[in-house]
Design a protein that fits this description.
The protein is mainly alpha-helical. Helix content is 54%, strand content 4%. Strands 1-2 form a two-stranded antiparallel ribbon. Helix 3 packs across helix 7. The chain is globular, with a radius of gyration of 12 Å.
């Protein structure tokens, strides 16, 4: 499964372009621009599975750094500051990783 089977290529491009500049990534705005906030809970879980590169059921900081590249291979890597802000916004239980339910809650809230 690929991102483009869940989200439109145009919406992904728009979201990636919006955060090209360093330190400009905002996860909520990104999810809105790429159309993920309008998807079903199952589709959001499918996107989570694509981002969870090692398949362990969690998105860790190293996977978050490459978050944008999961949507578009040529996209930039998130900075440490952006990665920590994203983790802080999504990691509801404070365990240092984002589970599928935490990801879904953040996207659909």
């Amino acid at each position: 499964m690929s991102m483009s089977s869940i989200l439109s290529a145009d919406a992904i491009d728009s979201a990636i372009k919006d955060c090209q500049a360093a330190e400009s990534f905002n996860c909520k705005k990104f999810f809105e621009l790429c159309g993920l906030t309008k998807k079903s809970p199952q589709e959001v879980k499918n996107v989570f599975g694509i981002i969870d590169g090692d398949g362990d059921g969690y998105i860790e900081e190293k996977e978050l750094k490459c978050f944008l590249q999961k949507f578009s291979p040529g996209a930039r890597v998130l900075s440490d500051k952006e990665t920590k802000a994203f983790m802080g916004a999504a990691d509801g239980d404070g365990d240092g990783k984002i589970g599928a339910e935490e990801f879904q809650a953040m996207v659909l809230s």
